[in-house]
Design a protein that fits this description.
The longest helix is centred in the middle third of the chain and has 27 residues, at 183-209. Helices cover 74% and strands 2% of the residues. α3 packs antiparallel against α5 (109-133), α5 (109-133) runs antiparallel to α10 and α12 (287-307) packs antiparallel against α13. β2 and β3 form a beta hairpin. With 357 residues, it is mostly helical.
């Protein structure tokens, strides 16, 4: 990432935080605030896609898996807390008589947070390292992740007694005995979410600016040369993919808190493709652009689904095609291009012959 682009990203991030913390909470009504919180949850995923797709050339169509893992793990804790000391209601309806063993760690919030942070990242690393070690890349990697998202969705829907099936897990009331429903708690959760998002933006910019980011771009452009230079490209790509999975998992946890449920449709193929659209519209090479894309497409999706309930998905598909064909670097690419043109027109960048430097 060049110095000018880094400055543009930092200035944009500061402006974004001012908007999210100082203006948005005071101009939106509680319903729209809740929608904004939901869109920001998807922004976590979009930032990870910027690192993997924009910088690493790894287009994953299955990021919804890790988003869903984070959401489901927090939902399991919330459901156990809401149902205690009884079994969750969907288990009773499915004639489950004893809590499944793999639910036990989610009785405690500390263990739940630990798994939300560690488990998706570990699974993502093991899966992607095995794939990249076999030198699977490009469209083949996208197909593998797409198939994985579909498989995971079918698996969850089929395990009604353990996962809530197609209805998912819902009906939460408290988080560690503190209410999470109502305008006041939702507003507090919004601010917590924005602060965590700021930390994720900072982490992503640090990675993009670091030596790891430069090597990642080199792998994207000439992986063979980087490999022959002695780098373990499979390890580097898997590490970045795991970081993106961690971001997605955090987003899924906030989604569960803000929306009040988690279901298979939040982690399936359609949801995963929509997450790619968020990054594409904002700018697949811009961390801040990914957040803007997630919010913009989110509001557009809400408006279109309310206005054109039968055909709104076609509008989203057309938007993705337009962005890919006309704006390959998204909206942030336009801003970057404008800044570059403005820089070249400055007097100190024009030499005595009248030629721009």
């Amino acid at each position: 990432m060049g110095e000018n682009k880094l400055k543009l990203e930092i200035v944009s991030a500061v402006v974004l935080m001012i908007l999210l913390l100082g203006i948005v909470p005071f101009v939106l009504d509680p319903f729209r605030m809740n929608l904004m919180s939901k869109y920001l949850a998807f922004a976590f995923v979009a930032i990870g896609i910027v690192l993997t797709w924009g910088y690493g050339g790894m287009l994953s169509l299955g990021q919804g898996i890790f988003f869903g893992l984070g959401g489901y793990m927090l939902a399991m804790f919330l459901k156990l807390e809401a149902s205690a000391p009884e079994l969750p209601d969907f288990m009773v309806w499915s004639s489950v008589e004893q809590l499944p063993l793999w639910w036990e760690p989610f009785r405690r919030f500390g263990w739940t947070l630990f798994f939300i942070v560690v488990l998706p990242a570990a699974l993502a690393y093991l899966f992607s390292y095995a794939v990249f070690k076999k030198r699977v890349s490009g469209v083949y990697f996208s197909i593998v992740t797409l198939a994985l998202a579909l498989t995971m969705t079918v698996l969850i829907v089929g395990q009604q007694g353990d996962t809530g099936g197609a209805n998912g897990i819902t009906d939460f009331r408290t988080l560690m005995q503190m209410p999470i429903t109502g305008d006041g708690p939702q507003r507090v959760l919004y601010f917590v979410e924005v602060f965590v998002l700021a930390a994720v933006i900072g982490a992503a910019l640090f990675v993009a600016r670091s030596r790891l980011g430069k090597v990642l771009i080199a792998i994207r452009d000439q992986e063979g040369r980087v490999r022959f230079s002695g780098y373990n490209t499979a390890h580097i790509k898997a590490a970045v993919f795991a970081l993106a999975a961690l971001f997605s998992s955090l987003g899924g946890a906030f989604y569960t808190l803000q929306v009040g449920l988690i279901a298979p449709n939040a982690m399936g193929v359609v949801a995963s493709v929509e997450m790619v659209i968020f990054a594409a519209v904002g700018g697949r090479l811009s961390v801040v652009g990914a957040v803007v894309g997630a919010v913009l497409v989110g509001f557009l999706r809400s408006y279109l689904s309310e206005t054109f309930p039968e055909t709104w998905l076609y509008f989203l598909g057309a938007l993705f095609l337009i962005v890919v064909l006309v704006l390959p670097n998204g909206l942030f690419g336009l801003l970057d291009r404008w800044m570059l043109t403005r820089e070249k027109r400055r007097p100190e960048n024009i030499n005595v012959l009248g030629v721009r430097a």
